[in-house]
Amino acid sequence: MANDLSTPLTGRKRKPGQRPHFPIARTLFGLLALIAIGFVLRLVLTNDPNGGRPSEEVAITSTRNSNQIANEVATGPVTITADPQQFPAGSSITAVPEGTTGGNSITGLPDLFGALPDLSEETSDGPIPRIAATGLTPFAAYARPVDAAVADTGPKVSIIVTGLGINEQGSLDAIDQLPDDVSLAFAPYGKTLTTTVAAARAAGHEVLLEIPLEPFDFPQNDPGPQTLLTGEPTRANLDKLFWLMSRFGGYAGVINNMGARFTASAADFSPVMEELGARGLGYIDDGSSNRSLAPQLAEGNKVPFSRADLVIDTNPSRQAILQALASLEAKALENGHAIGIVSALPISVTAISEWSRDLEAKGIALVPASALMK
Predict the structure, then answer these.
(1) What is the pLDDT of residues 335-346, one digit of tens each?
(2) How far apart are CA 270 and CA 228, in angstroms?
């Protein structure tokens, strides 16, 4: 008997009781093909942009003329009443002629960062000061003016308050209490530096930037992040300097925070002073180190410079601060000028504010630090 497996399919007979074979796969494929053809024909032959979705036409009532204020603006002049606190009665808005230059022009106004556009250079860290194409320096532009009569006669004293900007409320309180001629030095680490510096300048204060420099006992005594260090490549220190300079704008110069080791190293300090000179900034030495090379380097790079004579609140008590201020007055009477440095402690700020009220009666003028910088 022949093997069923070897029997040809053609002409093969179904055995008795065997069910007929039904091609299910072919049937399903045919149905899918018919559905696809029907869908294509509907798209081609039916002009229905909504794709068969139900739609209904609804009448729209126009409200075009229901806005009274809009109609008045469209048909004629309208009077707008301004906030009396923002625009007091009697004030006016002065139009600036197009194309004008100088302090009254748009290009002559400080930006939100606090810097004049012509005195600002963009870097990867942000804008930093530069000398304008006209030769105007940041020192000249941001220094607080001094009355000619005061500048030419009598002994003068300057007070620099340091450490501002870290505590926002404390900084704002100091700005409000201190006389306008007190110079304010801001640390480069505050989160609201732009607003606090803007408040200081709006109140008439001259602003300085504190830069952290390496002390002899670093890192046990650390002035803060981005401290300029001895022995580092010049490029590394200049990169730190640019970062520090980009924290806010509108400062006339810089003042060191610590730095006894750094300011005694000509190889490290010289490129920094050269950069300050190239950018038209002044430099104040806090007087904490007799080994500082700042006077020589500032003169060689034509940097406006001065050195503080006395730290006022080494002992932060009212009596000690008043005694130190009396010593500062004596130096001013003896040398014709003197600069005192004080921290932003509330007790120091209050003492300076009260002391300054009687200074003119003693024949001594309170002037911003820039007035005593060569």
Answers:
(1) 999 999 999 999
(2) 12
Residue 363 in domain: yes
In a domain, 333, yes or no: yes
Element (H, E) at 309: none
The verdict on residue 62 lying in a domain is no
* Length reported for the chain: 374
Expressed as residue numbers, the domain containing 266 is: 138-372
For the chain, the helix, strand and coil percentages under 3-state DSSP, each to the nearest 5: 35, 15, 50
SS3 55: coil
Please give the C-alpha separations between residue 63 and each of 66, 67, 69, 313, in angstroms, as whole numbers.
Answer: 5, 8, 13, 71
In degrees, to the nearest 5, what angle opens at C-alpha 113 toward C-alphas 107 and 114? 65
Percent of the chain's residues with pLDDT above 90 = 67
Burial (CB count within 10 angstroms: exposed 0-12, middle 13-18, buried 19+), residue 345: middle
Q: How far apart are CA 153 and CA 104, in angstroms?
A: 31
The reply to whether 118 falls in a domain is: no
Q: Which of 235, 294, 234 is nearest to 259 (CA)?
A: 294
Q: Residue 362 in 3-state DSSP?
A: helix
Q: By C-alpha distance, which of 306, 219, 215 is closest to 263? A: 215
- We report the CATH number of the domain holding residue 202 as 3.20.20.370
pLDDT digits (tens, 9 = 90+) for 168-191: 999 999 999 999 999 999 999 999
Phi/psi at 283 (5° precision): -140, 130
- Tens of pLDDT, residue by residue over 45-68, are 666 555 555 555 545 444 444 445
| Total tally of structural domains belonging to the chain | 1
Q: Which residues have a Cβ under 8 Å from the Cβ of 28 and sit 6 or more positions away? A: none
